[in-house]
Structure formats: C-alpha cells, structure tokens
Amino acid sequence: MKVFNPADFAALIAIDWADRKHDICELDQQNNETTFSVISAKPEAINAWANALKQKYNGQKVAVACELKKGPLIYALSKFKHIILFTINPSTVAKYRKAFTHSGAKDDPTDAAIQLEILQQHMSKLNVIMPDTQSIRSLAQLVEYRRKLVQDRVDLTNRLSTTLKNYYPQVLDWFNEKDSMIFCDFLLRWPSLAKVKRARKQTLHDFFNLHNARYPNVNEKRINDIKQAESLTSDNAIIGPNLLLVECLVGQLKQLMLSIERFDHEIKSIYKQHNDRFIFDSLPGAGPQMAPRLLAAMGSNRERYQSSEEVQKYAGIAPVTERSGKKEWIHWRYSCTTFLRQTFVEWAGQSVRYSFWAKAYYEQQKSKGKPHNTIIRALAFKWIRILFRCWKTKTAYDESTYLEALKRKGSPLLKYAMESKF
After folding, report:
1. pLDDT on residue 303
2. What distance in Å separates the CA atoms of residue 85 and residue 151, rounded to the nearest whole number?
3. CA 252, 254, 257 angle in degrees (round to 5)?
4. Pair 35, 52: CB distance under 8 Å
5. Residue 33: which H helix or E strand, with range?
6. Do 334 and 313 form a contact (C-beta atoms < 8 A)?
C-alpha cells in the first residue's frame, strides 16, 4: 500500500461522527488555518459537504480521518475520488485524550481536533481505507452477514430446545438435526405430544416420506416411540404458553433457514464468477462455505499486503510479545477484526480432516500437551503463510508440492508423521 504524508494533501480533516450529526475539524494546509464545523448525518448534507471540498480545493486530494472502518459515513465518502479516508482506532483517540486531558473532559469538537493531530503527526502509521472491487466488497458483507445468521440459528435452536424440554422433550430424541425443515414442519403440525399421539401411523409415514426421510427402520422406530411416549405434564398452565412460544420460534427458525439459503445462493453466484476462485477451491477443508470467506479476507488487490506477517497481524492470528525489564510475556492480539480471525481459525480446524501435514501437526502438538484452541491458532498461523504465497503468485495449492518442500527442508513434522502414523 502507498504510504502517504501530509504534504500530499491540500487539507487534513478529522470527523467525530455521531448518529445525527458529525463534528469536523479542518486544516487548510496552504493557509495553515484550522476551522470547526458541524454537518448533518443525512446523505444530502454529506454529499454537499464533500462536493464543497472539491470546489474549495480545486479537486486536489484531501485526507479525512475517522474512527470508522465501515458504516454509512464511510460508504457515503468512499465514492468521492478526491477524498482519501484514514481510519483511527477509537481506543487510540481515547488514550490520546486521556494523556493530555487529566480531568477526563470530553466533547465532540475536541475529539475531532485530537483526530486531526493524530492524522497530522502519525499519518504514515494509520490504515488507509482502499475499497476493493465491487464483487469483493459485496462478498465480504454477504459472508459476514451469513455467519451472523448462522449464529442466530444456533441461538434460536437452543432456545427452542429449552422450551420443548418444559412440556414435550421426546421430540428432541426423534430428530438428530434441530435446524432442519422436517423438524420445523413436524412441530408446526404436531406441536404437542397429545396431538402427535392422535395421528395415524400412515399419516406419520406419509409425512416422513414427503420430507425425503425415506429410512424405514428410522421411521418405524420414531412411530413406535411416539405411540409409547408418556407425557411429561398434563398441566395446561405449562403446556399452553410453551406450545405458543414453540410455534412462534419454529416460524422464526424456518424463515431464518430460508434466508440463509438465499445468502448461500448469492454468495455462490458471486464466488463462481471471480478469477481467483481456483486458488481457494484448492485449499484443504475450505469447501463451499469457507472458500468465499477466505477470498473475501484476502481480496483482489495484491498490493494490499506485502507479506504474510501483515495478514497474520491484521487477522489477529499473530500473538503479541511484551517486554518490560527482565520480564517477557506473550498474549492474545486484542485489536483485530474478529470475523477475519474467526475465518482463518475455523478453516484451520477444518483442514485437519483433509490435509496430511495439518493432521500430523495437530497430533504432534497434541502429544506435547498443547490445548486444542492453541494448536488450531498455531496451525492458522502456518496456513496464512501458505495461502499468502498462493494468493500472491496466483497459484493453486498442491499438497504434494508442499510435502516435497517439507521433505527437502528436512522437516521434523514429516518424520513424526511417518513414525507415529497417527
């Protein structure tokens, strides 16, 4: 990424954003004049302000700093070519303010001035918001939203299971997967044990067949269990409210699953059209869910990262070492994009099942007494180096090629794998 300095810009501007208005501190570099202003958070006001900047500085570049990486304000300003956006960590502003304002006093114009000072004095250390291609930006949001919907599905399923245990626990044993259409439709049709026990055997068989659950032994066992089941309680004061809540939760769960399917379709459509798809398809354990997430994580701009270490640090995979005097300690990297770290860690966990060397590494570290999460994070650290090389050179990953490289280097990992054979 290009390193900017204040001399590259006609003006330096900092924005302390809020829900309804934005406080602005602007430094005109030519006149060395600092002015304060406030604009509305409405799109019309932001557009008018950005166009006024273009006219005022004759289309020259202006640097704008903000405590955001994404959101309405960033989306509104990203379309203007004369604005270069810099992001400042909110904790940096808070600590900077605390260092020089011992009283703890805070207001929006002061925070804008602090951001301007950080931008002026430390521009080279700040991250620049450089939008990727439209497809990558769209994919990045889709995969993140999908992951949140999946977590919502887990939470909703857990809540549904807890409610069913209050009056209808048997149904949880009849279906292994609770986040399935057959489970939802079964509950909508027979939301209580009393209702399902009145159903005829053929009706139940027809229901299972209609939902492609064509396993005679499994279905026969389900039906026998239904007929032999005994009620947990006959108290309508318990059954009634819980039954109503179950019907509401099942409706939400069905809609959530349909929404996830729509996201899957859109993600697949964008991913299939990307030129770098072959790289991520070649990664062990990536699959249809993780491959698009990894593509969104790396992006299309090959200048975004200059080394794998930058990816490891940005994703929060690389640990942080602190030293003070004779003491030294290593800890978790706190400042990072959580979803990005989650992406690499989840992929590393999946790779153990599909990659020979990844499984060998996992077993080797496990034999040393390392906990599961520690091993997976260390494995993600290694995978990022491999992925970065493939991404940078536009080369598909090949397991045999990597194993040959380990063999040439005399890696002890291969020796361990051959001796232990898992």
Report:
1. 85
2. 32
3. 110
4. no
5. strand 33-40
6. no
Of all helices (H) and strands (E), which one includes residue 247? helix 236-272
- Radius of gyration of the chain measured on its C-alpha atoms: 28
With contact defined as beta carbons under 8 Å apart, do 383 and 337 qualify? no
Helices 134-164 + 287-298 axis angle, to 10: 140
Q: Which of 83, 99, 105 is nearest to 24 (CA)?
A: 83
Q: What's phi and psi for 386, nearest 5 deg?
A: -70, -50
Backbone angles phi, psi at 354, to 5 degrees: -120, -10
Q: What is the mean pLDDT of residues 86-115?
A: 82
Which long-range contacts (C-beta less than 8 Å, at least 24 apart) are formed by 92-95? 92/118, 93/67, 93/118
**Tens of pLDDT, residues 171-215:** 999 999 999 999 999 999 999 999 999 999 999 999 999 999 888
The whole-angstrom distance between residue 314's C-alpha and the CA centroid of its chain comes to: 13
d(CA 222, CA 191): 16
pLDDT single digits (tens) 136-182: 999 999 999 999 999 999 999 999 999 999 999 999 999 999 999 99
Q: pLDDT tens for residues 234-280?
A: 999 999 999 999 999 999 999 999 999 999 999 999 999 999 999 99
